[in-house]
# Entry
Amino acid sequence: MLGKKFWKLKVQERKISHQERDMKKIAVVTGANRGLGFGTVKELAKRGYEVLLLGRNLAQVEERAESLRKEGFSARAFALDLARPESIEHAAQEISAFPISLLVNNAGVFLEKGIGYDPEVVRETMQVNVLGPLQFTMELAPVLKKNKAQVVNVSSGMGSLSEMGGGTPGYRLSKTALNAVTRNLAVDWQAAGVRVNSVCPGWVRTEMGGEGAERSIEQGVASILAVVREDAPSGGFFRDGKPVEW
Ligand SMILES: NC(=O)c1ccc[n+]([C@@H]2O[C@H](COP(=O)([O-])OP(=O)(O)OC[C@H]3O[C@@H](n4cnc5c(N)ncnc54)[C@H](OP(=O)(O)O)[C@@H]3O)[C@@H](O)[C@H]2O)c1
# Structure
């Protein structure tokens, strides 16, 4: 027979784990199935966040979430296709009950190969890299404001006007526009205490960056998360925590 003392201890244990759970901060990462997205999720889980992994292939993000749970982390998976406004709306509805304190708009595409201009490719790139993340962030506005959350938009030096080069117009335009979203929301949400920043991860060895890129995923993730801190600024553009020229 199990004594009263045992059950009292069990109840105390349960209470503690509930308290710990309540204290857990929730982070949302898009494009979380691979590359910088999954790297970011892993690092945030290590830092004590409960992580919500979003990806367009639910089975894949679920597998990733399960691998984290096996390591003892809290992780959940949700479907999100930034090319489809109805998927964005649905995903935002699904996660808006969580007290989100960090949103990392990481997912993105680089569909162009050279200097050519293909209007369809530009349109698709704008949808996935800027219009989709903008819609998603706006749908989450109430919960982001309620929790005085931080928003990190994963941009690129290729979106910097002062360093603007030629070629790949869709990608360049999309990241410049994403930087404008950062500035715009940082102003609009200042009073609500929501901080919004753009970051450049550097040139990273992912499927997008290629094998010849100079940085590891861990280095790219460190650059993304350098801006996630108590005294984080708002409305800035950073690489490795240092300001980048717009
Ligand atoms: N790697 C670099 O050198 C570099 C440099 C500067 C900036 N960045 C930026 O860093 C971010 C992550 O890039 P990465 O290097 O990790 O690229 P990656 O390995 O190609 O991963 C891209 C991620 O975006 C997701 N994605 C693509 N289309 C999507 C859609 N329609 N809806 C939802 N998710 C979608 C992909 O999901 P699927 O697996 O389903 O395709 C994947 O998870 C991007 O915003 C990129 O522009 C990267």
